[in-house]
Amino acid sequence: MMIDPLKVGVTTARRPSPAEEADAREVAEREGFIFRPRRGRSRTALLAGDPAKGEAPLDVLIVVTPERVEAYTAGEEAGGDRPGGRRGGCGPLFFHPNMAKLRIQRLRHGGGDPMVAAMGLERGMHVLDCTAGLGADAVVASFVCGEEGKVVGWESSPVVACVIREGMARYRQPARSELPELVAAIRRVRVERRDHREGLKELPDGAFDIVYFDPMFRRPLLESEALLPLRLFADPRPLTPEVLAEAKRVARRRVVVKDRAEGEELDRLGLPVRHGGGNSRIVYGIWTRSGG
Ligand SMILES: C[S@@+](CC[C@H](N)C(=O)[O-])C[C@H]1O[C@@H](n2cnc3c(N)ncnc32)[C@H](O)[C@@H]1O
User: 235: CA distance to ligand 1 center in Å?
Assistant: First the structure.
């Protein structure tokens, strides 16, 4: 979905405090979106707008609360105003660390992670995730790199970038959680709204140890429900050979590209070295700088 930022609105929960309204206004301003005061209205009414008040219809509505940031599209209202309201199995887009959490738990117990292995990732490394998406890979990388490391996530979709950045900032761990490293890893990820086709060209040689790509698959796998909303807002363009060449210049050690197990995209991009995922439906293409 190509998104016009002028058709993206930001609002609050139904009955916001003045501080919550100020927070939502600030998010709208920072992102270049429209602020739409809630005034007790349903999401459907907010998306439709009120012509009498000079409000045009919106394509996307982002609801900002102290706990969560959720993006809805106009077709998504059958679920009502419940958080996580559903429409035909596709709910709103929001940040949730469940996938990253499972992987971090496995790593903490001495298990492996195919992405971490493909990157040859170690504490203290600097990682540029050129396709941040829902942020799971970036959070896992941040856990491994630790406080001495650095993880920057670039995301070109304005809605995805906003939802993930603001969602990460608001994420609080449940009180009885036994994984404090998760929140620390989330907080260390820096998500920026950036198109890697432009951004990489501006970086100096060897700016990051690892440059990572997980572009949208052209033929989606049968994915978990959680990924369906992402597909709605994501930038679907494939990786180009020009981008890969820039990534090789920017990477001090490795460029890693995730693909379906058939590796058709990796063939197209000329990345012959493969690391199979634990999940056999996924493979990682690896370019390593000699001596890296
Ligand atoms: C499959 S998702 C990444 C998922 C992510 N690895 C995770 O763990 O959640 C791919 C993401 O890359 C973004 N993307 C596609 N082309 C991009 C570009 N040129 N620059 C930055 N982000 C891009 C898409 O909008 C989408 O959100």
Answer: 7
Q: How far apart are CA 187 and CA 183, in angstroms?
A: 6
Interval 210-248: pLDDT, tens: 999 999 987 666 655 667 889 889 999 999 999 999 999
Look at the block and give the residue holding tokens 């807002």. 233
Q: What is the DSSP string of 204-255?
A: PTT-EEEEEE-PPPSS--S--GGGHHHHHHS--PPP-HHHHHHHHHHEEEEE
What sign results for the dihedral spanned by CA atoms 115, 119, 123, 129? negative
Considering only CA atoms, which of 185, 72, 65 is closest in space to residue 123? 185
Q: What tokens appear for 136 in the block?
A: 């799971």
Closest-CA residue, ligand 1 atom 16, reads: 235
Q: Pick the residue with more confidence: 224 or 192?
A: 192
pLDDT the model gives residue 81: 42
For the chain, domains (ranges, CATH) are 5-79 (3.40.50), 98-288 (3.40.50.150)
Ligand 1-lining residues (CB < 6 angstroms):
130-131, 133-137, 154-157, 160, 195-197, 214-216, 230, 234-235, 237
Order of strands, sheet of 150-155, starting from the edge strand that comes earlier in the sequence: 189-193, 150-155, 126-129, 208-213, 251-260, 282-288, 274-276
The label of the residue with tokens 């998104």 reads 3
270 φ/ψ angles, rounded to the nearest 5 degrees: 70, 45
User: How remote is the CA of residue 196 from the centroid of ligand 1, in Å?
Assistant: 10
C-alpha 261 – ligand 1 centre gap (Å): 18
Write down the pTM of the prediction.
0.92
Q: Which tens digits make up the pLDDT trace of 5-38?
A: 889 999 999 999 999 999 999 999 999 999 999 9
What integer is the mean pLDDT of 125-136?
A: 98
Assess contact for 44 and 54: CB atoms under 8 A: no
